[in-house]
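Researcher: Go.
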Amino acid sequence: MRIRKFVMASILSVTLCAGILSACGNSGKGQEAESTMDVTVNETGEKVHEDFSENVNVSRASVYAKSELPLPVEGIGRGIHTDVKAKKEYKIVVMTRNSTNPYMIGMWDGGIQAGKDLGCVIQAIAPSTQDAIDEQINIMETLIEKGVDAFVIHPSDSKGIQPVIDECNEKGIPVVAIGTAPEKGAFMRTGVDYYETGYLVAKELCEAAGGKGKAIILEGPSGVQNMEERKQGITDAISEYPDMEIAASQTANSKRAEGMQVMENLLQNGEIKDGLSIVAACNDEMALGAVQALKGANMDGVYVGGADGSKDASQAIKDGDMYVTYNTDPYGSTYLAVTYLVQYLNDGTLPEEYFIPFPSERNHPFLTKENVEEYINNDRWFAE
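Model: Structure:
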């Protein structure tokens, strides 16, 4: 196997499902601070497991990773496929934050399909208590002892998950992060660029509203890295419009019922309600809750946007109730993660960069009424 050197980027930072092995690296085409790591082989030419403990998370992907880097898969959503095959029946675990959010279910489905296509054993799991980081840690520790080959994870807390990531590094078990990434030590990160999703959706909402009026932001759980990144993108986009005002920014914990309740409470405030033109939610579930609240208040002409491209959000856009969303494709992201892990487990192949977003701009992930029907028919990640 060829020896490579990789440049690493840095910033400040249920039920059993599918898993992936991964290794972290950067081709040098990104624009972040760097440290180096060598891949070594033993005297027989076999790969010696890499130490990914120095790999630090980045919140933004390079332009190269978003648009030019060759991928080991083709297609997106339920049309994704690959020619990669596992040389052994690797055991890969996909662990999500919960088993109820459509995004998490999409991760499971994508991992399971990847296992079938590539020829590895996929297990899908989430904590019995939704978003419980302690239970996620216990799950991973138990599976480490049982001898899994790799993990694909969407942890509830980037800092809380760190001790078990360190343990994985000590034992040579690669971990791919989707969504919320540990502060360091992951093999790689995939899923979307969360800042970009928030920025582009909010900018589209502002343009639809003529760059004027009041905005409500529905935030994800406080302190969750990917939700904080998306909120920052939303805030930055709105700040570019001098005649737009953020009237309220509150968490609805990424849940539809809470999104509706928060919106109902905010709409009781006349100062917020008067002149409201956009609602930018950090995921589709909260956006759908906001749509329900606006309908209940008989309010028309408010543009609502979310992110994920879920089944219900896609239908809401088609019906004209929601204005825009961004396809985050958890199905394809997890499939891609498993593919990278299998490549690594097969022969030590490392991804060119640490953060390889999927889908990215090359996959046309922006969804409005103009293209949502084509997406539903051809590129969706959710089941029929």
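Model: Residues 1-44 have pLDDT under 50 and may be disordered.
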